[in-house]
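Ig-like domain-containing protein: structure, please.
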Amino acid sequence: LRLNEVRIPMHTVRDLNARLECHFDLEGEALYSVKWYKDGNEFFRFVPRDQPPAQLFPLPGVSVDVSTHSLIHNSTESQVVLKSVNLSSTGRYRCEVSAEAPSFQTVSDHGDMTVVALPEEGPRITGGRPRYQIGDTVRVNCTSGRSKPAAQLMWFINGEQADSTFLQGPEIVYTGREGLETAILGLEFRVKPKHFRRGDMKLKCLATIATVYWRSNEESVEGDKPQKAPVLESRETVPPSKSRADRVQG
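Here you go.
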């Protein structure tokens, strides 16, 4: 009896189904049972000679799908499907395979699954001004939407990741009964000529959660340009034909 692989999704989005797989080689022996445990508590047992072969044990956060679609069972000796996972489905899942007599050999392996509650909105940028001059200090915050776990935040200036010395935080704020988490990452730096490309500067904040969530927000701010003659006044005081020429030159 050999256990080849136990496949547990590392991250699963809340309210989706999760498929747990247990692949083994009986090497000529007969299968006695396959048992699944979450955090040490058994929730599913498959014994081929029992009728029916599948048996469930109630456990918070675990709802096994034993339905059948066109003669294909969702939960069998080699896989278990969990329906609509929730935050309490997070945990360590272990598959234990036992052979029939005379050997009664048992092998097991496990994997950890984290259920992710996705943010309902993307990251927000606050505190910025529409215009900066060289020498000014930029002080902005990026705040992620409420999620679990908290989103990882990254700042970019003109497409390049911000220097770590510019960052403040992250600070994590917990809210509500579910303890959803909001991350806040500050960015503070002094504006230099290199920060303006073609007269403006782009500040982008990226929020990610593992491989299941990826959202960004970008703000474009202008550099203060030298003041020209006030155009609006000239349009009011000069003849219309000339104001058109002024506009073209401008």
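Notes: Residues 124-223 form a domain with the Immunoglobulin-like fold (CATH 2.60.40.10).
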